Amino acid sequence: PPLPPPPPATTEWRPADEAWEGDGAKVLEKLPTGGVRLVQQEANPKASLTAIWKLPPARMAPQDVIVRIDDFSPGTGVCLTGPDGKPAIVCGFVAPTPGGPADRQGSLFMAWTPDKSPLTGGDPKNLGVGFVPRPIWLRFRVVNYCEEGLVVSWSGDGRTWARWRPLVTWPPGITEISGGGLFAGAHAGRSITLGELAVAELPGFAR
Questions:
Q1: What is the pTM of this model?
Q2: Which end of the chain, N or C, is less surrounded by CB atoms within 10 Å?
Q3: Residues 37 and 20: beta-carbon distance below 8 Å
């Protein structure tokens, strides 16, 4: 008999239809397009905001998380959570460190721990990492046995991908990724818009 068709390599969801948790879920704005926007609304915020969604169990490994970020401001990013559901790593956007060449415009991509709220980053003499387009697709390899740590790729069209370096090191003790979410640092007016959310299994066959 013929073999059954394989399961889809990529499963997508409308972010606005997902169940969100965390302190940022209360202020998360659901957009008509199906996306969501997290905004730091307080005039003098004392803490960062996070809005979290839970990943479905992987049917096979490796499993990638794919997001499309339509807009962002420095000090925001995408976070991945550990088994306790708390953010373990933030991969986000910062403004270039002051003092660089005058033509250094735009935002840079970097990683930090969730207890920090950076607005700037990078060596002004050697920024290294390219500036971030809008929209930007980000792809996170959530393989907990990967010795290299978290593998992050980015794309300007969702089809052609480039690997981001340096690799992101896992925090000590984190052996499982249970979910992801949006992060807005403890700075007034920080905002980030998520337009697409997906999980890809067997990424060699995904888009």
A1: 0.88
A2: N
A3: no
